[in-house]
C-alpha cells in the first residue's frame, strides 16, 4: 500500500484503494490497540537502494500521498522489502513471524488478485483476509482470487469488522 500509483493499471488500483484505505486504517488502529505486531511488507518498485523511510516519503510526497498517509507505518511497525508478488518469496518474513511468535496473519493491502493471492499461497500459517481491506485492479479476478484463497488455501475470508485480535496480539 506504500505506493505512488504512477504505474500501469494504477488508475484502477487507485479507485479500489480509495475504498479500502479507511478500512485498513481502522484495522491498523485496532491491531495497535491490541499490541498485535504490525508488519509492512512492501514492494521496492525496483529501487534497490531504497529503505522504509525512502519508500514512505516518496509515496507520501507523490500526487496520491493521501492514500498512503492514513496507513503509513508508525515507529513501532516492522518493515520488510520485497521484490516479487509474494510477501514470503525470498524475504525474511517467515523468520520474522517465527521470532515474533505469530501463528496466523491478517493480510491487507493490494492487489487482491496478485500479491495477496500469491502470498496466501506461500503462507505456511493460517491466513485471514478481510475482503473489504484488500484493493484490486480487476474486480472479477479479485473475487475469484478470494474464492480460491478460501477454498484451495483454507484462508478465512471475512469482513474487516469480523477480525479480532487476541490479548496476545494475534488475529482471529
Describe this entry's structure for a reader.
The protein has 172 residues and is of the alpha/beta class. It has one domain (10-162): Isochorismatase-like (Rossmann fold). It contains five helices and seven strands; from the N terminus they run H-E-H-E-H-E-E-H-E-E-H-E. It has helices at residues 10-33, 52-60, 93-100, 112-122, 139-152, and strands at residues 39-43, 78-82, 105-106, 109-110, 127-130, 134-135, 156-158. A three-stranded parallel sheet has the order 3-5-7, covered by helices on one side. Strands 1-2 form a two-stranded parallel ribbon. Helix 2 (52-60) links the parallel strand 1 (39-43) and strand 2. Helix 4 packs parallel to helix 5. The two termini are 22 Å apart. The mean pLDDT is 93.
Known CATH architecture: 3-Layer(aba) Sandwich
Shape: globular
CATH homologous superfamily label: Isochorismatase-like
The major beta sheet can be summarized as: 3 strands, parallel
Number of domains: 1
The average pLDDT score comes to 93
By CATH, the topology is: Rossmann fold
Taking strands numbered 1, 2, ... along the chain, how are they ordered across the largest sheet? 3-5-7
The amount of beta strand, in percent, is: 5-15%
Low-confidence stretches: none
DSSP, total strands: 7
Helicity range = 25-40%
State the assembly state of the protein chains.
Answer: single chain
Q: Helix and strand string, N-terminal first?
A: HEHEHEEHEEHE
Structural class, from helix and strand content?
A: alpha/beta
**CATH class, anyone?**
Alpha Beta
Rounded to an integer, what's the Rg over CA atoms? Answer: 15 Å
DSSP helix count?
A: 5
- How far apart, in Å, are the first and last alpha carbons? 22 Å
Amino acid at each position: 500500500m506504500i505506493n505512488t500509483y504512477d504505474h500501469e493499471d494504477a488508475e484502477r488500483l487507485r479507485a479500489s484503494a480509495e475504498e479500502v484505505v479507511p478500512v485498513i486504517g481502522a484495522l491498523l488502529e485496532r491491531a495497535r490497540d491490541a499490541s498485535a505486531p504490525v508488519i509492512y511488507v512492501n514492494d521496492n518498485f525496483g529501487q534497490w537502494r531504497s529503505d522504509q523511510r525512502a519508500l514512505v516519503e516518496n509515496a507520501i510526497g507523490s500526487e496520491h500521498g493521501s492514500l498512503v498517509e492514513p496507513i503509513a507505518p508508525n515507529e513501532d511497525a516492522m518493515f520488510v522489502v520485497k521484490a516479487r508478488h509474494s510477501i514470503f518469496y525470498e524475504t525474511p518474513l517467515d523468520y520474522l513471524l517465527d521470532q515474533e511468535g505469530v501463528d496466523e496473519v491478517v493480510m491487507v493491502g493490494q492487489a487482491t488478485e496478485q500479491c495477496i493471492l500469491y502470498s496466501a499461497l506461500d503462507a505456511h500459517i493460517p491466513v485471514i483476509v478481510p475482503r473489504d481491506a484488500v484493493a484490486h485492479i480487476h474486480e472479477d479476478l479479485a473475487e475469484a482470487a478470494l474464492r480460491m484463497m478460501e477454498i484451495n488455501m483454507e484462508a478465512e475470508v471475512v469482513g474487516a469488522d469480523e477480525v479480532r485480535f487476541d490479548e496476545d496480539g494475534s488475529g482471529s
